[in-house]
């Protein structure tokens, strides 16, 4: 098996494919990470404060979140990509492991982000659509147009994230789902959006009430999770698998309130897009002929850098830069202009032979690039145009020129530390294949440990820790899982299982009295019982997966009611010195088989008041007269 894996790795290292899809994946993955970090920063007092706004967490956490967001932005832009990936990975490990995000505010996709962030440390995702490419070109003082064909990477850069983030996750989740009766009944996709705590604000009852569709969807998802790991290696199967998987995760985004998980999974499907599509897209998007010829002073360092920057962002290749010293005589539009004037400005000639100079050249460049045209239109607005022209003139007249000696490319363009590490520790292609194969074997062992122990033995009711002969193995298995969960993102994917939904028949909400004595709903759970935006993602997970479970505990419920009221109270004009909230309860139906109209029936269930939450001098007291929380 090891030899077969090594041969596969050799093949993958040798096969080079366009880096375009990998660059787009890096951009969208970075945006998913960035939005989640900003979400955590917005809710930082609810998540990190032991008691929101009263017993506050260290402000250092807030600064670390901003540093994390900066790393995610750098990763998105492809600026110092490997360093940004390393910093992002460190934060994805540290925050979920050492803060309340570990258990109380688990986002449901943190381990997915950990695993993919780990791979981005080693994958050259900066080779396409990155500022690192621009930095490398700017290191050379002489302008040279970008290569006509996109950069290439090993095909393993695509296959490894798909294997780890999609194939392993699907297989593990599918194994777990086989033990859930409602999944075996075909209603695994129907039940969560029928429960008020999991549905979003869009009414999908017309689709949920279609029994044939919902059962067909449930069985298709279950089958897909086993078929995907076996078939995604085959080129002809990737497009159907990509279409199905992207549809499923889009469905998660538009029907449930755990949209970050849906987006995080969805961006990985960019890695399944056929490479010929990227090539065809590039040919279709790029202009057949340049629309604008721009003439610049070849002896001007600033002009050379300007040409490099514009050429980097001109993805349509609609602008062609030409040196005045080499091409001015070949352009009729420049005839009669003294050399001194030619060297004092940037000139452009369009396809109709019209001549532009100075700021007008930049406006035409922006328009020719297509996506930058709105900025060109903005610069054309009277007032803005005159101000920009004055700034341009000041810069143009103050630029320096140099002789040919200073335009010779530097002998050393800087050393890439990642390249040095790869050359030092990975060696030639044969040694690299052997070491990568060993790493993949280790990851396979960690994944099998998780799936066999928790997806098979645990689901069959076998507890190795209770068998004397197997107890040491069980201890080792748990230790490996703790390690793989925190460092590699390998964890049991028991998502939306029967042991969470069975008995989850209680819905709680909180109200208060405004200044006029009218009852108002706290902006958390509304009068229908739905968790309202923006309290979705990991905030929803805190309430529906941790605070409230099928096995209610009064202490746990009181702990999170204290956090929620302390956080939302000041938003509605109440504080922890003197405030009273009403705790409401209603019933929810959670069946193991399909029922018509369940979504609307759960939303329409009547509420009843079961107690009060009394705040006095920074302390909360939960008063539930005659109510046993654990029997609700």
TrEMBL record:
<feature type="transmembrane region" description="Helical">
    <location>
        <begin position="150"/>
        <end position="173"/>
    </location>
</feature>
<dbReference type="InterPro" id="IPR052964">
    <property type="entry name" value="Sporulation_signal_mat"/>
</dbReference>
<keyword id="KW-1133">Transmembrane helix</keyword>
<dbReference type="GO" id="GO:0012505">
    <property type="term" value="C:endomembrane system"/>
</dbReference>
<feature type="transmembrane region" description="Helical">
    <location>
        <begin position="246"/>
        <end position="271"/>
    </location>
</feature>
<dbReference type="Pfam" id="PF05090">
    <property type="entry name" value="HTTM"/>
</dbReference>
<keyword id="KW-0812">Transmembrane</keyword>
<dbReference type="InterPro" id="IPR007263">
    <property type="entry name" value="DCC1-like"/>
</dbReference>
<dbReference type="GO" id="GO:0015035">
    <property type="term" value="F:protein-disulfide reductase activity"/>
</dbReference>
<feature type="domain" description="HTTM-like">
    <location>
        <begin position="14"/>
        <end position="277"/>
    </location>
</feature>
<feature type="transmembrane region" description="Helical">
    <location>
        <begin position="21"/>
        <end position="41"/>
    </location>
</feature>
<dbReference type="Pfam" id="PF04134">
    <property type="entry name" value="DCC1-like"/>
</dbReference>
<feature type="transmembrane region" description="Helical">
    <location>
        <begin position="109"/>
        <end position="129"/>
    </location>
</feature>
<dbReference type="InterPro" id="IPR053934">
    <property type="entry name" value="HTTM_dom"/>
</dbReference>
<feature type="transmembrane region" description="Helical">
    <location>
        <begin position="216"/>
        <end position="234"/>
    </location>
</feature>
<dbReference type="InterPro" id="IPR011020">
    <property type="entry name" value="HTTM-like"/>
</dbReference>
<keyword id="KW-0472">Membrane</keyword>
<protein>
    <recommendedName>
        <fullName>HTTM-like domain-containing protein</fullName>
    </recommendedName>
</protein>
<feature type="transmembrane region" description="Helical">
    <location>
        <begin position="86"/>
        <end position="103"/>
    </location>
</feature>
<feature type="transmembrane region" description="Helical">
    <location>
        <begin position="61"/>
        <end position="79"/>
    </location>
</feature>
């Amino acid at each position: 098996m090891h030899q077969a894996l090594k041969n596969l790795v050799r093949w993958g290292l040798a096969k080079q494919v366009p880096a375009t899809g990998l660059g787009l994946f890096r951009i969208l993955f970075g945006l998913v990470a960035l939005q989640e970090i900003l979400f955590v920063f917005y809710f930082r007092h609810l998540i990190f404060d032991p008691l929101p706004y009263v017993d506050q967490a260290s402000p250092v956490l807030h600064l670390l979140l901003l540093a994390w967001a900066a790393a995610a932005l750098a990763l998105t832009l492809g600026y110092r990509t490997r360093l940004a990936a390393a910093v992002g990975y460190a934060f994805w490990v540290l925050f979920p492991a050492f803060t309340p995000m570990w258990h109380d505010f688990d986002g449901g996709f943190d381990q997915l982000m950990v695993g993919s962030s780990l791979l981005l440390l080693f994958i050259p995702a900066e080779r396409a659509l990155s500022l690192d490419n621009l930095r490398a070109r700017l290191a050379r003082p002489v302008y040279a147009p970008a290569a006509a064909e996109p950069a290439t990477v090993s095909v393993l850069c695509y296959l490894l994230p798909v294997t780890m983030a999609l194939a392993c996750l699907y297989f593990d989740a599918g194994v777990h789902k086989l033990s859930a009766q409602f999944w075996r009944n075909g209603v695994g996709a129907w039940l969560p959006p029928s429960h008020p705590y999991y549905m979003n604000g869009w009414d999908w009852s017309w689709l949920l009430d279609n029994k044939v569709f919902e059962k067909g969807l449930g069985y298709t998802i279950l089958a897909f999770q086993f078929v995907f790991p076996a078939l995604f290696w085959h080129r002809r199967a990737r497009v159907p698998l990509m279409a199905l998987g992207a549809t499923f995760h889009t469905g998660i985004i538009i029907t449930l309130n755990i949209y970050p998980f849906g987006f995080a999974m969805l961006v990985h499907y960019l890695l399944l897009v056929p490479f010929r599509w990227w090539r065809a897209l590039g040919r279709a998007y790029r202009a057949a002929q340049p629309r604008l010829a721009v003439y610049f002073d070849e002896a001007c360092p600033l002009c050379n850098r300007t040409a490099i920057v514009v050429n980097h962002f001109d993805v349509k290749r609609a602008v062609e830069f030409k040196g005045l010293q080499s091409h001015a005589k070949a352009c009729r539009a420049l005839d009669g202009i003294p050399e001194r004037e030619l060297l004092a400005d940037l000139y452009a000639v369009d396809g109709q032979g019209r001549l532009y100079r100075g700021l007008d050249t930049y406006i035409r460049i922006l328009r020719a690039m297509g996506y930058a045209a709105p900025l060109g239109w903005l610069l054309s607005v009277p007032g803005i145009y005159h101000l920009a022209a004055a700034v341009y003139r000041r810069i143009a007249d103050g630029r320096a020129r140099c002789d040919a000696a200073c335009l010779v490319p530097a002998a050393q363009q800087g050393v890439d530390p990642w390249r040095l590490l790869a050359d030092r520790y990975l060696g030639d292609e044969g040694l690299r294949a052997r070491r990568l194969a060993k790493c993949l074997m280790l990851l396979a062992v960690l994944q099998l440990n998780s799936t066999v122990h928790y997806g098979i033995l645990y689901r069959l009711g076998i507890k190795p820790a209770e068998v004397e002969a197997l107890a040491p193995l069980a201890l080792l298995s748990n230790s490996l899982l703790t390690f793989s969960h925190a460092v590699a993102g390998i964890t049991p994917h028991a998502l939306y299982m029967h042991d969470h939904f069975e008995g989850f028949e209680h819905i709680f909400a909180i109200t208060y009295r405004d200044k006029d004595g009218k009852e108002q709903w706290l902006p958390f759970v509304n009068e229908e019982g739905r968790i309202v935006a923006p309290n979705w993602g990991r905030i929803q997970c805190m309430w529906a997966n941790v605070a409230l479970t099928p096995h209610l505990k009064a202490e746990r419920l009181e702990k999170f009611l204290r956090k929620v009221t302390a956080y939302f109270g000041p938003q509605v004009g109440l504080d922890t010195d003197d405030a009273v909230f009403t705790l409401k309860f209603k019933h929810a139906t959670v069946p193991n088989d399909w029922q018509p109209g369940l979504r609307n029936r759960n939303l329409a269930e009547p509420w009843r008041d079961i107690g009060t939450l009394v705040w006095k001098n920074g302390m909360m007291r939960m008063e539930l007269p005659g109510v046993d929380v654990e029997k609700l």
